Amino acid sequence: MSYRAYIQHCIAPDCGAEFDLDARLFVCSRCGGLLDIERREKIDSAPLRDLWLQRRASLDPRDRSGVWRFREFLPFPEDTEVVSLCEGNTPLYDAPRSADYCRLPQLKLKHQGCNPTGSFKDTGMTVGVTQARKLGARLVVCASTGNTAASLAAYAARADLLCAIIVPSGHVSHAKLAQALDYGAKVFEVDGNFDTCMDQIRELAEDESVYLVNSINPFRIEGQKTVAFELAEQLDWRVPDHLVVPGGNLGNSSAFGKGFRELFESGLIERQPRITVVQAEGAAPFARFFSDYQQERFIKEEHPETLASAIKIGAPVSWPKAARAVQETGGSVITVTEQEIADAKAIIGRDGIGCEPASATTVAGIRKLKINENESVVAILTGHVLKDTDYVIKYHNGSLVAPYDQRLSSTFANIPIRIQSVKSVADLLR
Ligand code: F0G
User: Fold this and answer.
1) How far apart (Å, rounded) are the C-alpha atoms in residues 361 and 382?
2) Which atom number of ligand 1 is nearest to the Cα of residue 247?
3) How far apart are CA 76 and CA 355, in angstroms?
4) Is the pLDDT of residue 3 over 70?
5) How many other C-beta atoms can be found within 10 angstroms of the C-beta atom of residue 428?
6) pLDDT digits (tens, 9 = 90+) for 380-406
7) Is the pTM of the predicted complex or chain greater than 0.90?
8) How far is the CA of 113 from the centre of ligand 1 (A)?
9) Long-range contacts of 388-397 (CB under 8 A, 24+ apart)
10) What are residue 381's DSSP bridge partners?
11) Radius of gyration over alpha carbons of the chain, in Å?
12) What is the Cα–Cα distance from 138 to 106, expressed in whole angstroms?
């Protein structure tokens, strides 16, 4: 299959412009619409399942990556030198306590927090930064609520590229900021929220030598779509009935939609899972768009509010792609409260897994969805529990305060106990 079989294609129904793969674009230069990478040749998928499995035993760095192992579906020539940190290959866990909490017999959690920088962003970043280097970019940039920043900073360092990051001042967890600084990125803090940062970064990316690696960039989505491939493989190519993901800027849900569609069209799976996107109640413009069918245009949330800072986003750039994913798969978009997120997060912890607050929207959402006992469900955990330890400590010591001064209950609190000597420990645990 030749790499020339790929193009960039504007998804706006009344445009559909096509561009060469190496045109340095982030949105359609004709209408401003979102771009998809599209393959124009049919692929012979018959040998692929075996080939991909064999690569698991290979020492080729591309085969060690859970993204590049599926490179037949990525828009790069075979001899591309990839920028990789051995991303992907994340576990799919059975989570019995979380299942119980959701009143289901079984629930599986795919932990994207087990990526090199602790979030799902790495699967997209390896591809985005590989394309940046291929295009000869000097500087890679992104706006971020923290995880994209940490991930881009790491991959830029590996690629020896300059990296600039714009974050909303005071609204990024310390752990994420610490990562970006340690990996050597220049971090710029602005007053405002993520949406303000996104507006500013687009301006910066107008310069030819600058490459924007937010999820509006279709190469990021190409990398993230391979998680659908890895998940299908882990389930022996029998996809779940439901796939549940958190929704912020909506790149991840878009990527799962594209990944499962491509697998289905290639005959690698027999059906697609229903994709459900879960948003925090205070930052839920996509859920509102879906609940109101009369709504003809997407109305952004001017003042998004949630303690799940990763998804505190009011103007998600990829909403048309995510809407397509939800509609094509018969999925849904729902919201959960701050209390529901906090409690679900504690339960995921009790399964010995843990995650950051944004990821816990999934389990909180599954608890509210009407799912039959015989249906299978996979939730995507997007970030590691250590990404936001302030939140964890405050939850357990009863001091977690949600927006608008709403004090949250620490339903499943686990408080450190001060002791004088270990002699009292056995008594306490009796
Ligand atoms: N979960 C986590 C942990 C995230 O960091 C993000 C997004 C999401 C979920 C939402 O994913 O945007 O693809 O819908 N974080 C971005 C960032 C915005 O800058 O790190 P999405």
Assistant:
1) 10
2) 14
3) 33
4) no
5) 8
6) 999 999 999 999 999 999 999 999 989
7) yes
8) 12
9) 388/173, 388/175, 388/309, 388/356, 388/357, 389/175, 390/173, 390/174, 391/173, 391/307, 391/345, 391/356, 391/357, 392/345, 392/349, 395/342, 395/345, 395/346, 396/346
10) 111
11) 21
12) 48
Enumerate residues 6+ apart whose C-beta is below 8 A from 297. Answer: none
According to DSSP, the residues that pair with 246 across neighbouring strands are: 278
Cα–Cα distance between 226 and 78 in angstroms, integer? 17
- Phi/psi at 169 (nearest 5 deg)? -60, 125
Strands 186-190 and 162-168: parallel
Backbone angles phi, psi at 344, to 5 degrees: -60, -40
Query: What is the C-alpha to C-alpha distance for residues 102 and 65, in angstroms, rounded to an integer?
Result: 33
Q: What is the pLDDT of residue 1?
A: 46
Interatomic CA distance for residues 327 and 334, integer angstroms: 14
Distance CA 59, CA 46 (A): 24
> For a substitution probing ligand 1, which of 193, 252, 380 has the most ligand atoms within 8 Å of its CB?
252
Are 123 and 87 in contact by the 8 Å Cβ rule? The answer is: yes
CA distance 44 to 35: 25
Instruction: Tell me which residues have their CB closer than 6 angstroms to ligand 1.
Output: 119, 121, 144-148, 215, 246-252, 310-311, 356, 358-359, 382-383
Where does residue 113 fall: left (phi above 0), alpha (psi -120 to 50 degrees), or beta otherwise?
Answer: alpha
The residue type of 273 is P
* Ramachandran area for residue 136 (φ above 0: left; ψ -120 to 50: alpha; else beta): left
> pLDDT of 235-286, one tens digit each?
999 999 999 999 999 999 999 999 999 999 999 999 999 999 999 999 999 9
Nearest-angstrom CA–CA distance, 149 and 147: 5
